[in-house]
Amino acid sequence: MARRNDHSPEQLRALTLTTVTAFLEQQPAADLSLRQAAKLVGYSAGTLINLFGSYSYLLLALNGHTMDEMSGDLSAAMDQASTAKDKLRAMAEQYLAFAQLHPHRWRLVFEHRLAEGETLPDWQQQRIDRLLALVEECMLPLYPDASTTEIQLKIRTVWACVHGIVHLTLEDKLFATPAISGKALIDDLLTRYLPA
Questions:
Q1: pLDDT at 117
Q2: What domain range is 70 assigned to?
Q3: Same domain, 165 and 109
Q4: For site-directed labelling of 51, which of 6, 25, 35, 138 has its Cα 20 to 30 A away?
Q5: Number of folded domains in the chain?
Q6: Distance (Å, whole) CA 171 – CA 105
Q7: Measured between alpha carbons, how far is 65 from 86 in angstroms, rounded to an integer?
Q8: What does the UniProt keyword field contain (predicted)?
């Protein structure tokens, strides 16, 4: 593919993320390659490597883009609720809804692994911390006397359970007869786990 200089690096980065995001709305990440991404964007694979550093970091940047969108959706859902429990429930249900609406993008966030020797950039760790901070915001009022260690355990327990429910719902692996929705499982989890 011939070299192009139609876009600034910032524009090309945005174009790449938008284009690959659109691809993942229809097809799984396993169906994408660096060459295919480059072809979709209309630039050479080398240009994308120069821009992102590697194909792995391109996918990581895409995951950052997805996490930003997810964080915005979760925050908006929380803003519609008044109590800490209702905020947590709204956030968990929106997390499920996001995964159901964008399953390929959601899976990529959790399935992508950096190559050995590659380190998670600070900008991605900040996104992870931001998502966990949303859970913490809901849970701190429910456990006002909990130590830092206790609250961190509770945050990750709720996060792991909700994430597991979402994953099993997407994979259709709940194996319940009659069928049970992910939303019903989230409601049951939070009703039983959270203090009255």
A1: 84
A2: 63-193
A3: yes
A4: 25
A5: 2
A6: 14
A7: 27
A8: DNA-binding, Membrane, Transcription, Transcription regulation, Transmembrane, Transmembrane helix
What are the residues whose beta carbons fall under 8 Å from the beta carbon of 43, sequence distance 6 or more? 1, 4, 12, 16
The contacts found for 9-17 with CB under 8 angstroms, 24 or more apart, are: 9/51, 12/41, 12/43, 12/47, 12/51, 13/51, 13/52, 13/61, 15/41, 16/41, 16/43, 16/48, 16/51, 16/52, 16/58, 17/61, 17/62, 17/65
Q: What is the pLDDT of residue 1?
A: 43
State the Cα–Cα distance between residues 172 and 31, nearest whole angstrom.
Answer: 21
What is the per-residue pLDDT for 4?
60
Cα dihedral across residues 123, 124, 130, 133: positive or negative: negative
pLDDT at residue number 62:
96
Q: How far apart are CA 112 and CA 9, in angstroms?
A: 24
Could you count the other beta carbons within 10 Å of the beta carbon of residue 138? Answer: 25
CATH number at residue 151: 1.10.357.10
Kindly list the averaged pLDDT for each block of 10 residues, start to end, along the chain of length 196: 70 96 97 96 94 94 96 97 96 98 97 87 93 93 94 94 96 89 95 90
Q: Which two tokens stand for residue 111?
A: 């399935």
Structure tokens given for 13: 């980065």
Alpha carbon 79 to chain centroid distance? 19
Angstrom distance (rounded) from CA 151 to CA 143: 7
